[in-house]
Amino acid sequence: MSIFLSISTVLFIFALAFYVITCFQWFSYRPERVLFHFTKPAWHVLFFIVPLVLFYTTGKWFFIYFYFALLPALYLWHKKLDKKLVFTARIKHFFVILACAIILNYALNFIIHKAFLAPMPLFVLVVSLFFSEILEKIKFQGFKNKALKKLGANKELKIILITASYGKTSIKNFLFEILKDSFVCYKTPRSVNTMAGIIKDINENLNKQTQIYIAEAGARLKGDILEITKFLNPQIVIVGEIGAQHIEYFKTLDNIRATKLEALQSARLQMAFLHSSTKKEPSQNLEIYDESLKDINANLDGISFTLDGKSYASPLLGKFNATNLAVCIKVARYLKMSDEAIDSALSKMKNVEHRLSKIEAGGKLIIDDSFNGNFSGMCASYELVSTYAGRKVLLTPGIVESDAEQNANLAKVINEIFDLVIITSSLNAQTLLKHIVKPKIIILKDKNKMQEILAQNTHAGDLILFSNDAPSFI
Question: How much is the pTM?
Answer without folding.
Answer: 0.75
